[in-house]
Design a protein that fits this description.
The chain folds into 2 domains: 195 residues, Homing endonucleases (Endonuclease I-creI), CATH 3.10.28; 74 residues. 55% of the residues lie in helices and 14% in strands. It contains 11 helices and 8 strands. The strands form 2 sheets. A 4-stranded antiparallel beta sheet has the order 1-2-4-3. α7 runs antiparallel to α8 and α8 packs across α11. The longest helix is centred in the last third of the chain and has 52 residues. The mean pLDDT is 88.
Length: 319
């Protein structure tokens, strides 16, 4: 993209590019207005203000309102005073009482909608509108996965979480937490974040999220395997050192010729000659030496018997 925008904004602009049926446009408007709408009472008349930092989201909101309701709509623009001085787009709806009633949004009473989320598609569109209004999702390349929708009312946050969690054919386990004066409906599991992106039909963003996640997980798997290899090598060398010491003890005491078991005698000789060899390597060499098949488990069994014999003669030594 030409602009350096966040992954969250990429998701929102993809959602804004989708086509919605009339019932879903109504649900999307309801979710957006509830989470980020404001009601202005003025001498020129009442207005509903739907504001966003994305021109694409503003265009979607304008199209949804104009296609559903015969009301006066206008645009305005404001620029923030902070360091980044972001542009904010306002979709302003005059005399919005009928619109608010239809989308079941009331800024003066705490109530939740019912008719706008009757179907799975409507519920998904409502959640899409809520995410467009006040949602965010971490870039998949970041150190942790997190998707959230911030709202101002605790009861509404619980209802929104329930709406998400009861989605059919999806498995969400969203939670609600309070952050200062806001309530956060959030997902932390990467698979559920992917499911949410699919739910709101942000399929391209989901593919990007999954590709980065798979690459990152492969790197983590590689690191874990490398750590395991290092740990196993350290364990193997430690065991080999112990075996070498125990063999030297018996050799210095009685000599190899005193060992009656040809497998054990051959194994002891090989361990003295190959102090760093693994059990697999010792099994292969012992098989060649004796002209028979010797397994790794057989080698391990012989060393275990040798260790037990050593401990019997040296009971003060630790395991």
């Amino acid at each position: 993209m030409a602009d350096d925008i966040s992954f969250a904004m990429e998701v929102k602009e993809e959602i804004s590019s989708l086509y919605y049926e009339a019932a879903c446009r109504r649900a999307l408007l309801s979710g957006f207005a509830k989470c980020n709408g404001s009601f202005h009472i003025g001498p020129a008349g009442d207005e509903l203000d739907l504001s966003t930092e994305s021109s694409k989201i503003a265009k979607l909101l304008y199209n949804c309102v104009s296609s559903l309701y015969g009301v006066k709509i206008r645009f305005s623009y404001t620029r923030g005073m902070g360091f980044r001085k972001r542009m904010k787009y306002h979709v302003l709806i005059s005399e919005p009482d009928d619109v608010l009633s239809d989308i079941e949004v009331d800024f003066f009473q705490q109530k939740v909608p019912t008719s706008v989320v009757k179907t799975e598609d409507q519920a998904a569109a409502y959640l899409a509108g809520a995410f467009l209004a006040s949602g965010s999702v971490n870039d998949p390349s970041s150190s942790n996965y997190h998707l959230e929708i911030a709202v101002n009312d605790g009861s509404y946050a619980k209802w929104l979480s329930h709406l998400l969690n009861k989605s059919k054919n999806r498995h969400f386990d969203s939670k609600v937490a309070q952050r200062r004066k806001q309530f956060i409906v959030y997902l932390k599991r990467s698979d559920q974040i992917s499911e949410f992106l699919v739910l709101v039909k942000a399929n391209e963003s989901c593919l990007k999220f999954e590709n980065v996640r798979v690459e990152r997980d492969f790197a983590n798997i590689g690191n874990r395997l490398q750590n395991l290899d290092g740990a196993n090598m350290s364990k193997t060398l430690k065991a080999a050192e112990r075996q070498h010491k125990e063999i030297e003890y018996f050799v210095s005491k009685d000599g190899l010729d005193s060992v009656d078991n040809p497998k054990l005698r051959g194994l002891m000789e090989l361990r003295l000659d190959h102090p760093d060899a693994s059990l697999d390597e010792l099994a292969m060499m012992l098989s060649e030496k004796l002209g028979m098949t010797i397994s790794k488990s057989n080698v391990n069994h012989l060393f275990r018997g040798l260790h037990e014999a050593y401990l019997k003669e040296n009971p003060n030594e630790k395991e």
